[in-house]
Amino acid sequence: MTEKKYVLAIDQGTTSSRAILFDHSGRIVAVDQKEHEQIFPRAGWVEHDPLEIWRNVRDVVAGVLSAAEVNRHQIASVGITNQRESAVVWDKTTGEPVYNVIVWQDTRTQRICERLAGDEGPDKYKERVGLGLATYFSGPKVTWILENVEGARERAEAGDLLMGTMDTWVLWNLTGGVNGGVHATDVTNASRTMLMNIDTLDWNPGICADMGIPVSMLPEIKPSSGIFGHGRKNGLLVDTPISGILGDQQAATFGQACFTRGQAKNTYGTGCFMLMNTGTEPVHSTNGLLTTVCYQIEGEPAVYALEGSIAVAGSLVQWLRDNLGIIKDSKDVEELARSVEDNGGAYFVPAFSGLFAPHWRPDARGALVGLTRYVNKGHIARAVEESTAFQTREVLEAMNADSGQALTELKVDGGMTRDELLMQFQADQVGVPVVRPEVTETTALGAAYAAGIAVGFWSGTQDVIDNWAEGKRWTPQMDEAERDRLFRNWNKAVTRTLDWVDDDVVE
Fold it and tell me: 314-332 burial, b if ≥16 CB within 10 A, otherwise e?
C-alpha cells in the first residue's frame, strides 16, 4: 500500500480558489490557484458564478497534484475551507444553480433584515444564534433568492432545491453531485447562517419559518473534523476521504494553534477577521462582536469564539488598483505608502458594504476625509494601509472588553501580513507585539489539520501546536500621544460615514 504522505486543502475564497498540498510538518509542498470573476450587477450587489467556482476547484486540484507529481494514493485526506457567509441555491436533480452565489459582502438583503427585525430590532435572534440581523449572513440571502427568482419558492417547497455555503457546494460536487453527493456542512459555517442554535448546534425551525426557508433545503450539520464523505468515482480524488471543513476564519484560528481560551488571531484578507477562543461555552458580546463556533473535533465538545468582522481590508487595496489605477499591483501599495512620512491628514474609512464590527451600521458608506491640496497619492495609499490597522484596533478593544482580559500579543496571518509597513503600524496601534508565523497560509493549513486529525495523519491538536513556528515579530514603537491622536482622528472620520444610505438613496 502506498504510504500516505500529504493532506490536500481546498481553499474556496472570495477572489480565488486554491488547492494546497501539505506534508506532515505542516509545510507547503505545492499550490495552485485560479481567480474567479467578481460580478457587480448593481451598487451594493456582489455575486459569483458557482459553476465557474466548481470548474476552478477541479482545475486547481488537478494542478496541485501535477505540480507535486503525486496522486490520490499518497493523500491521506482532503480539507475544505471557504468564504463563509456566501450562499448558493441549486436543484438537487440537475445540479444547476437557480441563481449566482450571493457573496458575504452583498447588501441587497437590508430590507429583508429590517422586515425580519420588526419592532424587536436587529438583535431579535442574537440570543439564539449569536448574530445580529445583518446583510452579512447567509440566511437572508437565501430568502432573497426564494422571493425573487421565478419559481424558486415552489421548487423549494416541493423539496427540489438545496442551499448551502460554499463548503457545502464544493463537498456536494466532490462527493458525486446529482449521483449521491453529500449535502452537509460543519458547525462553523452553519453558525454563520443565522439559522443554527448556537447552544445546541442544530437548525432552528422557527427562524427558518420566519425567513421562509424550508428545512428540507438545509445541509446536515457535522463536526469540523470528521468524515464527511469520499471523492466520487470519476474524479481525481476517488475514494479519498473529505474529513475536515472549517469556515475560512475558523480554519485560520485552527491553523494558528489558538486552542487555549483567550488566544486570538487576526487574518488580513479580502476583509479582516479577529477571533478569540472563549472555550466550550458561548460568550455573548455586549460590545458589537459576534458569537460563533470556533471548531469541533468529532467526539469532543464544540469550542466557541468571539469574532470581530471587518468587511474591507485587502479589497480596499484591490479597489485602489482596479477602480482608481493608482497602483498596478496590490503589492505596490506598500512602496507607494512609504514614499511619504505620514498620512498627510487623510483618513480612509472603507465602508463599502456599511460598517461591520463593532459598529454594525448598514447605512454607512466609504469616505476619504481630511483632504487638502497637500495630499497626494502616497498619502492616500498610506491612508488605505492605516485603515486596516485602525479597524483592527477597534475590534481588539471590543474583544478585550467582552472577554475581561487584555490580549498580550496578536497572532496575524493572510496576504497583507507581507506588508511590513502595515504590520509595524498595526503593532503601534494595538500596543502589543504582532506575531506572524512561518507558514502564513494558515486558513488552508487549518483545514488540512482538521482533515488530517480525523484520519489519524496527525494525532491531535498537540501536533498543530508543535508544528507552529514564529516567523517575524513587530513590537510597538510609536509615541503614545501620537498613537492616540491618530486614532482620535480615525474615530472622527468614522462619524462622517454614518447615515449616508436612506430612503432617497437607490442601491
Answer: bbbbbbbbeeeebbeebee
Q: Residue 500: its pLDDT value, please?
A: 86
Q: Which cell numbers hold the place of 421?
A: 509597513
Does the structure show a pLDDT above 80 at 502? no
* pTM (2 d.p.): 0.87
The pLDDT tens digits of the residues spanning 238-255 come to 989 999 999 999 999 999
Residue 2: the pLDDT is: 62
Radius of gyration of the chain (CA): 22
Element (H, E) at 444: helix 442-454
Alpha helices in 47-106 (DSSP H): 50-68
Answer for the pair 271, 13: CB distance below 8 angstroms, yes or no.
no
Residue 234: the pLDDT is: 67
Residues 6+ apart with CB under 8 A from 95: 173, 177, 178
Class of residue 412 by CB neighbours under 10 A (exposed 0-12, middle 13-18, buried 19+): buried
Instruction: Tell me the three state secondary structure of residue 306.
Output: strand
Instruction: Answer for the pair 366, 352: CB distance below 8 angstroms, yes or no.
Output: yes
d(CA 176, CA 192): 25
Instruction: For strands 290-295 and 303-310, give the pairing.
Output: antiparallel
- Strand residues in 101-155 grouped as ranges (E): 101-102
Calpha distance 328→135 (Å, rounded): 32
CA geometry: angle 9, 392, 474, nearest 5 deg: 80
For residue 307, pLDDT over 80 is answered with: yes
Q: Angle at CA 240, nearest 5°, toward 236 and 244?
A: 115
Backbone angles phi, psi at 267, to 5 degrees: -105, 130
Cis ω before 358 (30° cut-off from 0): yes
Provide the CB-side half-sphere exposure for 91 (13 A, CA).
Answer: 12
Residue 92: CA atoms inside 13 Å, Cβ hemisphere, count? 18
Distance between CA atoms of residues 115 and 92, nearest Å: 30
- Residue type at 430 in one-letter notation: V
pLDDT tens digits, 332-345: 899 999 999 999 99
Q: Which amino acid is at 478?
A: M
Q: Picking from 9-18, 395-404, 452-461, which range would have the lowest pLDDT averaged per residue?
A: 395-404
